[in-house]
Amino acid sequence: MIINRRKTPFRYELKEAVAFELQFLSINGMVPPQKPVLAYLYNINRAGCRIWMPLSLPIDNSNIAISMNIVLNNEPITLKGVLRWSLPHQNGYYYGIELDASDQERERLPAELRELAGQNRILAQ
C-alpha cells in the first residue's frame, strides 16, 4: 500500500508557459515604482507557483510582495504573493511564489485548474 505523506497540494505544470504582467507591491515595506514586468507562469497550485522573469532580485534578505494579473482561461485572475526562492535560468530567474490569495481567488483557482486540465493544458505533479 502506498501512503501519501504530501502536506501541500499537487502542483500543476503548464504544458506551455503563460505570459503575464507582474507588479511589485512592496520591497521590504517600501512601495516601489509601479512599472509592470513581463513574467511567465510555469506551474501553480493553491499554495504557490513558479514563475520566470528577467530580473535578478535579492530574495535571501528581502520581503518582496507581488501581484500577478494572469489569464489562465478566459477571465483574468489577480493573485498576490511573496517571493520565497530564486534560481538562475536562461538569461533570467525562476522564482517561487507563496500565494496570499483572497478567499474569492482561492475558490476560483481550482475551477480554473480543472478547466485547464479539461483542455489538456496542464499536468499534475
Describe the structure.
Pfam families: PilZ. It comes from Paenibacillus septentrionalis. InterPro entries: PilZ_domain. With 125 residues, this protein is mainly beta. It has a single domain, classed as Thrombin, subunit H (Beta Barrel). Helices cover 13% and strands 49% of the residues. It is built from one helix and seven strands, in the order ββββββαβ. It has a six-stranded antiparallel beta barrel with strand order 1-2-3-6-5-4. The longest helix is centred in the C-terminal third of the chain and has 16 residues. It is globular, with a radius of gyration of 15 Å. The model has no long low-confidence stretch (mean pLDDT 88).
Task: Give the SSE map.
Elements (H helix, E strand, L loop, with lengths): L11 E16 L9 E8 L3 E6 L10 E8 L4 E13 L4 E7 L3 H16 L3 E3 L1
Antiparallel strand pairs: 1-2, 1-4, 1-7, 2-3, 3-6, 4-5, 5-6
Features:
single chain, 125 residues, Thrombin, subunit H, 1 helix, globular
| End-to-end C-alpha gap | 20 Å
β-strand amount: over 45%
Dominant shape: globular
Rg, Cα atoms, Å: 15 Å
Give the helix tally: 1
Query: Element order, helices and strands?
Result: EEEEEEHE
Query: What is the CATH topology descriptor?
Result: Thrombin, subunit H
List low-pLDDT spans.
Answer: none
Strand order of the largest sheet: 1-2-3-6-5-4
Structurally, how many domains make up the residues?
Answer: 1
CATH level 1 class label: Mainly Beta
Protein name: PilZ domain-containing protein
InterPro entries: PilZ_domain
Domain PilZ: 35-109
Pfam families: PilZ (PF07238)
